[in-house]
Amino acid sequence: MKKPVELIIFDWDGTLFDSVGQIVASLQFAAQQFNQPLTDAAAKSIIGLGLPEVAQVLFPAVPELHHDILQCYATHYVENSKGDVWFEGVAVMLQDLKAQGLKLAVATGKSRKGLDRVLNQTSSQELFDVTRAASETKSKPDPLMLTEILQATEIHVENAIMVGDTSYDLEMAQNIAMPRIGVSYGVHAPEVLARYNPLAIADDVADLHQLLLKHVNIKQAV
How many structural domains are present in the chain? Predict the structure, then answer.
C-alpha cells in the first residue's frame, strides 16, 4: 500500500493569493524612493524569498538602505493592496480539501505580520492547521519551514505535498524529498518549475484542485 497524503502545504503569494502585481508595484515604488534601479522582471523574480533576502538580491550595493527600503515597500503594499484576493476557485478548493480530512498548511516568504494580515483579510485562519512565515524561520529554498510544519503536524515527509509557483517553493520541497506540485499561473514559468521534478504543473486553480484530488486518491489506493 502506498503512503496516504495527509498534509498539503501551500505557498501564499502567486499560488493562493493574486498579489504578484501589487508586490512588484510596491517594490518598484520603494526602489524609486531611494533612487535604486529595478526592473519589473527582477522584482517579480524574487517573490517567494524572505524580505531580508529580497533586499540582498535586489539592492546588494546599498546594504545601509535595506531596512528603509523594506519599510517603504511594506507600507506601500499595505496601503495599496486592498484589492488583493484569492485566485478564483481557491476558497472552494481549500474547503473541499479540508472536507476530505486533509491537513492544510502555509509556507510563505511573507513576514508573520504580513501573513496574519492576509489570513484575517480572507477569514481563513481556521482552514490551516499550521502556518510558517519567513520572518520566524529560514527563507526558502532552505527547507526548515517545511520541517517545522511536519513536526507540528506529526506527519512524515512522504505523506505531504508542497504546492508553489516558484523555483524556491519546489527546490525547498526537493531538498527534503517532499512530493511537490507547481502552478504556472504565478511567478515562474513551467520550464523553470519542471527543473525540480514536480508531480505535475497546474495551469489554473481548477486544474490544481483536480490534480491534488487525483494524487491524494492515487496514494490512498492499494
Answer: 2
pLDDT at 64 over 80: yes
Say if strands 160-164 and 130-133 run parallel, antiparallel, or are unpaired.
unpaired
> What whole-number distance in Å separates Cα of residue 22 and Cα of residue 122?
17
Alpha carbon distance 58, 125 (integer Å): 32
CB 182 within 8 A of CB 170: yes
- Say whether both 38 and 130 belong to one domain: no
Confidence at residue 85, expressed as pLDDT on a 0 to 100 scale: 86
Cα-flanking dihedrals φ and ψ of residue 201, to 5°?
-125, 120
Domain carrying residue 71: 20-80
Global confidence as pTM? 0.90
Which of the four pLDDT bands, split at 50, 70 and 90, describes residue 81? confident
At residue 221 the predicted structure's pLDDT band, cuts being 50, 70 and 90, is very low
Specify whether 97 is located in the same domain as 46: no
2 occurs within a structural domain = no
The closest alpha carbon to 204, from 48, 84, 86, belongs to 86
